[in-house]
Amino acid sequence: MKQFKITENDANQRLDKFLKKLFPMATRSLLYKFNRTNKIKVNGKREDNEYKLQIWDEVKIFLVDNDFDKLSKVALKTPGFWTPGVGLDRKDIVFEDNFLLVVNKPAGINVHPGDHKTKETNLISQVQDYLGDKLNSLTFKPSLAHRIDRDTSGIVIIAKKKDMLTRLVEDFKNHKNIRKYYLAVVSGHLDKKEWIIDKKLERIENAQNENKVLVSENGLKAVSYYKVIDEFKYKNEDLSLVEVEIKTGRMHQIRVHMTSIWHPIVWDKTYGNKSLNHYLQKELWVWRQLLHASKIEFTHYWTWKKMTLEARLKDDMKAFLEKIK
Strands, E, within the chain: which ranges? Predict the structure, then answer.
């Protein structure tokens, strides 16, 4: 028999969902059977699977140690990878308190673990290594409130508390109480120095040799507002630095929207200008799309203050802009 005290990060969830997180290798029907046969007790009695756990509830699980260990193992398909010498750089911490960690993600790493065959590091593994186990509960670990592309740098919010995560994820999902700004280097000089791009985007499932996202009337509403920050001429190439605020959060939204108005992001391998990409890589050693999540505004759900946080440009993008000025 094992006994657990419910803390704030495990509370306010249904008993069956708590058990499924505690026993990821168990089927839901098996967990229901455990409860039906009185192997699960909450505060000394059997509760329905829909029962919402409360702080300081006492959960007793009457299983032999061998069964408990076997069912609580984490599936191998979603490991946390760690590469020796590659950890979270303290200089990339934009903000931290007891509830949030906000980091300036480098380009070139995924926010989550990728395919189980790779040994590359990823942002959430770096974060969990940095924070250690002190914030982990029975069913919760500090988690990403949103994500950005592998080859995009910039601000990412990690919630240290379950309630904070739930509220922020809801805000990102419904596009409320959140404002996200990006800096991008795009090809050409834009005729309109400020403009709203309102074009629906359709995601192509299981795309192989085609773009994953297309402008399509069959797609979902997507709105981006851009303004030109600076303009450059590098030899015979016109380039512009733009700030883009996304009013919606569709996959590859900025990349597809900028390409749709004939001003793709520099070194966007999927949606960009391949000949320009090749030329600038040869001339200026560009290796990733020049897109940076530069600023975010959101509500801090403990202090109820409006937060505005900015992330400095990464050295590669900063050096590129200095070279073309």
Answer: 2-5, 40-42, 58-61, 93-96, 100-105, 143-144, 153-159, 179-187, 194-198, 201-203, 213-215, 223-234, 237-246, 291-300, 305-310
Amino acid at 30: L
Strands laid side by side in the 40-42 sheet: 2-5, 58-61, 40-42
Q: 2-71 and 90-324 share one CATH topology? A: no
Catalytic annotation, pick one of 10, 92, 149, 151 = 149
In the chain, where are the structural domains located? 2-71, 90-324
With vertex at residue 219, the alpha carbon angle to CA 216 and CA 225, rounded to the nearest 5 degrees, is 80
- What is the C-alpha separation between 101 and 105, in angstroms, rounded? 12
Question: Residue 157 and residue 142: Cα distance in Å, rounded?
Answer: 10
CATH topology of domain 90-324: Pseudouridine synthase (3.30.2350)
Given a cut of 80, whether residue 210 has pLDDT beyond it is no
Closest CA to 152 of 285, 307, 282, 265: 265
- Per-residue confidence (pLDDT) for residue 80, from 0 to 100: 36
Q: How far apart are CA 268 and CA 276, in angstroms?
A: 10
pTM of the model: 0.84
CATH superfamily of the 2-71 domain = RNA-binding S4 domain (3.10.290.10)
Our answer to whether residue 149 is catalytic in this structure is yes
Mean pLDDT of 93-112: 96
Nearest to 181 by CA among 47, 313, 269, 25: 313
pLDDT tens digit sequence for 230-242 = 999 999 999 999 9
Contact predicate 276/235, CB 8 Å: no
Q: How do 153-159 and 291-300 pair as beta strands?
A: parallel
